[in-house]
Design goal:
The protein is α+β, with helices and mostly antiparallel strands. Helix content is 42%, strand content 14%. Strands 1-5-4-3-2 form a five-stranded mixed beta sheet. The structure holds protoporphyrin IX containing FE (HEM). It holds the Pfam family Cyt-b5.
Length: 136
């Protein structure tokens, strides 16, 4: 298309975060969607909440149609300097020192609270049957 595309930092793009000036970062490109806010079938709020970050996942999660993507190209204003986008934090499972609950004292107490009455009941029934069979 001739000419170089402008490259924006995320900080620059993030300034355009309100309904009178709204820019989005999707798949490495920057889009000025201000004029589209009122027409967006998904509403303006979702667009505004996708500002100031890489909105690629938000955009993809909706499963936008090809025509939505074509429309989007009309709002292209430049590219994002990807080094300014924070990398995603990898999910790490919380380290649990005590994830074998079965051995925790609380579990044993709970187990005892359940087993002791059961044991007493069993004993009572046993004695009753035993004494009954003796007297018969
Ligand atoms: C330039 C960017 C965007 C364009 C041109 C665009 C365009 C469209 C279009 C045409 C539709 C109708 C369905 C379809 O054809 O796929 C739609 C639906 C929708 N969009 Fe976007 N969209 C953009 C960005 C976003 C972003 C960043 C989000 C989320 C943060 C979003 C959320 C939604 C939702 C939730 C719907 C579904 C509405 C419904 O079916 O009830 N859109 N969008």
């Amino acid at each position: 298309m001739g000419g170089e595309s402008k490259v924006f930092t995320l900080a620059e793009v993030s300034e355009h975060n309100h309904h009178k000036d709204c820019w989005l970062v999707i798949e490495g490109k920057v889009y000025d969607v201000t004029s589209y806010l009122a027409d967006h079938p998904g509403g303006d709020q979702v667009m505004l909440s996708a500002t100031g970050k890489d909105a690629t996942d938000d955009f993809e999660d909706v499963g936008h149609s090809t025509s939505a993507r074509t429309t989007m190209e009309g709002f292209y204003v430049g590219n994002i300097d990807i080094s300014t986008i924070p990398t995603k934090v990898e999910f790490t499972a919380p380290k649990q020192a005590n994830n074998s609950q079965d051995k925790s004292p609380e579990f044993i107490i709970k187990l005892l609270k359940f087993l002791v009455p059961l044991l007493i009941l069993g004993l009572a029934v046993g004695i009753r049957f035993y004494t009954k069979s003796l007297s018969a």
